[in-house]
Amino acid sequence: MTTRSYVDEDGAVVIGRLRVGPGILGYGSAGTIVYEGVLDSRPVAVKRLLRQFYTLARKEIQVLVVSDEHPNVVRCFAMEEDREFVYLALERCKHSLSDTLSSREGQQGMQDPCGVPTPWCMSVLGDIAAGLAALHQRQIVHRDLKPHNVLLTGAGRAKLSDMGLSKQLVSEQSSFESHGSGGSSGWQAPEQLLAKKGTAVRQSRAMDVFSLGCVMYYCLTAGKHPFGEHYERDTNILRGLCDMAPLHKWPEAHNLVSAMLSRSPAARPSMPAVLGHPFWWSEEQRLQFLVDVSDRVENEDREPDPSLLHALEAHTAAALGPNWGAALDPELIANLGKYRRYDYTCLRDLLRVVRNKRNHFREMPIELQRLLGPLPDGFYRYFASRFPALLLGVYFFALRHLDDDPNLAKYWPGGQHMSAAFNKPWETMAAAAAARVKAPRGPVARRNSGGVPGRLVSASPLGSPATPPRPTPAGAAAAAAGGGWWA
After folding, report:
1. Is 363 helix (H, G, I), strand (E, B) or coil?
2. Residue 269 has pLDDT above 90, yes or no
3. pLDDT tens-digit series, residues 362-411
4. What is the distance between the alpha carbons of residues 398 and 308, in angstroms, rounded to a whole number?
5. Secondary-structure breakdown of the chain: helix, strand, coil percentages, each rounded to the nearest 5
6. If we measure between CA atoms, which residue out of 278, 240, 234 comes closest to residue 262?
């Protein structure tokens, strides 16, 4: 039903309860303009569409009504229409994610001076993922997720917007065919690009997961795109040519985003699986996980079946490298030697170090407490900066071999099967890391006759204990900055 509109003395269009303009907030496709507006004294953003897109506007309202009140989805307050246009009164936000990251200030907000994602970056990503998960839970496929359609409030919260191309699935429906691909060039999943070319393909929630992977990469790298420059993105997406190198120094991000950008929709994780990935864990939760796994495997050497320990140690090369003692400070190595023997080539023994020093942190010398950092965050970062793949290595070991342990079930709330999509990216990453391992020279680890892990000892005939070499200044600096895996 159309409503009569008029232009007031300030140049604003007044229609029903809505005052539109004259200030412009932005432009969309097909003649869409977003104006400043007021609805019943409330500041709003008014999306004005040509009347021929009435169906699109009505669909957007229906989706927003279904997801109303979710903190990470833009709210719709009203719709008005006259003979020429349809007006949607939407929740007013400050900027789009695209606008934010086009500025130097916005890029600095996403990455610290060392290139590490900031807490605000992680918060924005969490908001976007939570909003998309809420849509999927309500059987809604967004189909056009991109930085332009992520809005940021004045408080820095992220909200999904622009639901005009979305698809509401019916009960029990998981995919659909569409005459249109939906989405925007450079941010579409391969199946959307194939649909655009006329190929008959099924589309599903997985297309949103792919687009979210692109957006996450965009934020984590402060504005880069995983498939290159504008002119080459669609071609690279269809060919699966993705540059993951910028995420190499963050194995959790690398693993998660790699899975989300899989060419095959079936290989991508669901949104519950995405949200359950260790990428989102706090440093306290990451530390507790390592301690819990260490507790679980502590006495496995007393069991008649050594297969569990063998499975754990199979992850050593990828998670640690050939000699973890070489990456620790001499002060810590000296302290370790006072209490027990450690095998510096053994993953279980490094987990013992993490667990024992965490549990007895207050009993350590003050200088060593300062070196390792405050519990829990600084302590975890000390080890994570030296062994970036430690968490993932232990995670995938536990996922495959300890998935039925009730004390660890909290780390995969949806069940370990939900994490299957992350296996292949980890195996690829681990194989590349393990291939870089070379036989250690000089000091080597050996065991005594009782089979107890021994301290690192010299390969010389004297067999005198040897201290692992201190990392080079360049290596230490890279570790402190959250650098890449050991090489």
Report:
1. helix
2. yes
3. 999 999 999 999 999 999 999 999 999 999 999 999 999 998 999 999 99
4. 10
5. 45, 15, 40
6. 240
CA distances from 432 to 162, 279, 321 (A): 41, 20, 12
Q: Are 260 and 252 in contact (CB under 8 A)?
A: no
Q: Which member of 40, 68, 82, 144 is catalytic?
A: 144
For 238-268, what is each residue's pLDDT tens digit?
Answer: 999 999 999 998 999 999 999 999 999 999 9
Same domain, 237 and 305: no
**Listed residues 261, 277, 293: the one ending a domain:** 277
301 and 449 share one domain: yes
DSSP assignment of 236-257 equals HHHHT----GGGTT-HHHHHHH
Judgement on whether residues 431 and 319 belong to the same structural domain of the protein: yes
Domain limits at 195?
A: 95-277
Selected residue with higher pLDDT from 273 and 201: 273
Beta strands 5-7 and 76-81 are unpaired
Q: In this structure, is the dihedral angle defined by the CA atoms of residues 133, 138, 144 and 149, taken in order, positive or negative?
A: negative
Residue at a domain's end among 245, 277, 309 = 277
Tokens found for residue 124: 């924005």
DSSP line for 395-433: HHHHHHHSTT-TTTGGGSTT-GGGGGGGHHHHHHHHHHH
Mean pLDDT for all residues in the chain: 85
Kindly give, in sequence order, each residue whose CB lies less than 8 Å from that of residue 479, ignoring residues fewer than 6 positions away: 327, 385, 386, 471
- Residue 274 near residue 282 (C-beta atoms within 8 A): no
pTM of the model: 0.85
Whole-number Å distance between alpha carbons of 242 and 219: 16
- Residue 144 bears catalytic tag: yes
